[in-house]
Amino acid sequence: MTEDTVASSPNEQAVVSEQSTVVPLPWSSRILAMPYMPGGGKNQVQTLETLLSAVVTQEGRVAAMVDLGDGVQRELRDAVKQVAPAGLIAHLDREHLDVSEEARLWMYSRDPHDLLAIFHRHVRFVGELLHALADGARTVRELMDVAAREYQLQWTTLDQVRRRVTWMSALGLVEYKTNTHIGLTDAGRKAVTGLQLGGPEQRPRTAATVTNVPEPPQPIAALVKGLTPEVLMGRNSSLGYIPRGNGETEIVESLYLLVNASSPSISRADLLAFAQRTFELSESSFSAVMTTLNKSGLLEQTGFNIYSPSEPATAWLETQSTLDLVLILHRRFLFMLEIIPLLAEFDRAPDLARAAYAHYGMARVDVGGVRTRLQLLKAAGLIEERANWRYQPTPLGERIALEIPIQTALDEYDDETNGFDQPSRDHGPSPANKLALELESAAVAGDSPIRLEKAVAESFSYLGFEARHIGGGGKTDVLATVDNPDGKPVRVILDAKAARSGTVNEGAVSFDTLSEHKEKHHADFVALVGPGFDSGRVRARAEQNGVALVTVNELCRTLRRHETTPRSPSAYLGLVDSRPGARKDLESGWSHAERRIMLLSQVVAVLAQEAREADDVTHGALSADQIYLIVRDEIDPRPSTKDIEEVLQFLEHPLIASIAHATGSAGRSITYRLIDAPGLVAAKVEALGRSIARVDMEN
Question: Across all residues in the chain, what is the average pLDDT?
Answer without folding.
Answer: 84
